[in-house]
């Protein structure tokens, strides 16, 4: 059975269940089938750079090599930070109480999104306090690790309608680009639109 | 990657877009503290996979015996080679296929087959003769983040002094409005953006920020709304 995630907001603790969702869950999926000139089924394979070696799905693997190009066992690898200091392991967020802190829209917009989860209250848990704040336009953030490991992802909690979502990813490296000079734009015909006017199921 | 984009005055310029990467704060070293690198290697080519071994040895027992006796699953010359510059190809029983007919099987979220249709590969429309259009349709950032999931974000970057001004102005306008601009491509300026031929179409939004004399222009691409599916299949 899935484990609940304990969250804390302003000292109020509650447990939520998270369920991963993706585009296929909303709009369905598209599979491609292919045939050669004779109508025989064709499948996608990987062609190596030599132009003749064909590789099936699962026929390749990622390996780690040292400076000499020799393979290294993963167990020999040491994770370090940018200063070269060895990192300590982080615990799975499911084993902790995760303190939510307020987040800004601009921070969230710099997120490189990995996955989306819908939140539901765990059995006998009440998330009204969180839901009220999300409906009021608040957004929250906390460091998240599914199984534990050496680093956290950034988890943002936000509301859409009556539902709460957790968007998981890595904070991106957003750069402000310099040169000089700025001018004022002339106004042109512009309109405010509602999000409802934009079609998604036609994509 | 380049984008041909027009501004509010319908002036267009070709500028660059760069992928937004997550902050990388971790690297791996070996036991001596020396840097390491990830490489993709060949485990087994098609000629040494189970289906061909089965074809050669007739049944699984004989394959098992062959595996114990020799190493028929390994090509001593190829196995372990670094894979770079690979490409994807269609292969039929007659070999590599150069002319292929593709069909799309479209399934509903509940898994039911909705339709089967010939696959039409859309051309990319981000860097074509027709610039990506400044539609003049704005959405408040606060609303956009609660309605759409931005599954792909890129940063728009100037390529010279003129385009610095061009993009700075866009960023400034968008920052003042605290809004995102809906972008559209194609002749009629009504198509979602497609980055590569046959690639996914995205609803694209432009967000701008300025800080002193610097700017940040982000192209947020979305192919998914932030909403609860009608049917959720629990995982993990």
Description of the structure:
The complex is a heterodimer of chains A (about 200) and B (about 240). By secondary structure, chain A is mainly beta. Chain A is about 10% helix and about 40% strand. Chain A is built from three helices and 16 strands. Chain A has an eight-stranded mixed sheet with strand order 9-1-2-11-14-13-12-10. Chain A is extended, with a radius of gyration of 24 Å. Chain B is of the alpha+beta class. Chain B has four helices and 16 strands. In chain B, strands 1, 2, 9, 11, 12, 13, 14 and 15 form an eight-stranded antiparallel sheet that branches. A two-stranded antiparallel ribbon of chain B has the order 5-6. In chain B, helix 1 packs across helix 2. Chain B is elongated, with a radius of gyration of 25 Å. The two termini of chain B are about 35 Å apart. Classes of the chains: A mainly beta (about 200), B alpha+beta (about 240).
How many helices of chain A? 3
Structure class of chain A: mainly beta
Q: What general form of chain B does the structure show?
A: elongated
Greatest interface:
A-B, 104 and 117 residues
Q: Could you estimate the helical fraction of the residues of chain A in percent?
A: under 10%
Average pLDDT of chain B, rounded to a whole number, is 90
């Amino acid at each position: 059975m899935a484990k609940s995630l304990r969250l804390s907001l302003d000292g109020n603790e509650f447990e939520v269940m998270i369920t991963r969702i993706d585009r296929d869950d909303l709009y369905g999926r598209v599979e491609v089938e292919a045939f050669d000139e004779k109508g025989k089924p064709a499948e996608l394979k990987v062609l190596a750079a030599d132009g003749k070696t064909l590789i099936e799905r699962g026929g390749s693997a990622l390996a780690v090599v040292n400076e000499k190009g020799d393979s290294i066992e993963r167990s020999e690898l040491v994770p370090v930070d940018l200063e070269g200091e060895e990192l300590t392991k982080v615990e799975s967020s499911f084993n902790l109480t995760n303190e939510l802190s307020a987040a800004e829209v601009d921070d969230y917009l710099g997120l490189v999104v990995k996955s989306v989860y819908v939140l539901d209250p765990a059995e006998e848990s009440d998330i009204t306090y969180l839901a009220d704040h999300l409906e009021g336009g608040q957004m929250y953030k906390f460091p998240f690790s599914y199984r534990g490991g050496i680093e956290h992802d950034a988890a943002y909690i936000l509301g859409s309608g009556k539902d709460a979502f957790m968007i998981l990813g890595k904070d991106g490296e957003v750069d402000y680009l310099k040169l000089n000079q700025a001018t004022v734009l002339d106004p042109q015909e512009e309109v405010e639109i509602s999000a409802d006017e934009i079609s998604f199921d036609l994509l | 990657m380049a984008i041909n984009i027009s501004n509010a005055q319908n002036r267009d310029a070709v500028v660059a877009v760069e992928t937004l990467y997550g902050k990388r704060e971790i690297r791996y070293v070996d036991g001596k503290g020396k840097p390491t690198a990830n490489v993709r290697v060949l485990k087994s080519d098609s000629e040494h996979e189970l289906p061909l071994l089965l074809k050669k040895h007739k049944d699984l027992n004989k394959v098992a015996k062959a595996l114990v006796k020799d190493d028929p699953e390994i090509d001593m010359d190829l196995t372990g080679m670094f894979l770079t510059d690979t490409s994807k190809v269609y292969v039929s029983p007659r070999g590599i296929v150069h002319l292929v007919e593709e069909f799309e099987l479209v399934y509903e979220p509940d898994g039911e087959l909705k339709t089967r249709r010939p696959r039409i590969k859309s051309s990319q429309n981000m860097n074509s003769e027709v610039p990506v259009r400044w539609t003049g349709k704005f959405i408040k950032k606060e609303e956009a983040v609660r309605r759409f999931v931005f599954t792909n974000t890129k940063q728009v970057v100037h390529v010279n002094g003129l385009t610095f001004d061009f993009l700075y102005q866009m960023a400034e306008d968008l920052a003042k409005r605290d809004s995102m601009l809906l972008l559209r491509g194609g002749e009629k300026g009504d198509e979602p953006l497609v980055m590569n031929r046959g690639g996914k179409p995205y609803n694209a939004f432009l967000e701008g920020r300025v800080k002193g004399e610097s700017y940040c222009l982000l192209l947020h691409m979305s192919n998914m709304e932030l909403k609860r599916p009608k049917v959720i299949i629990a995982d993990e």
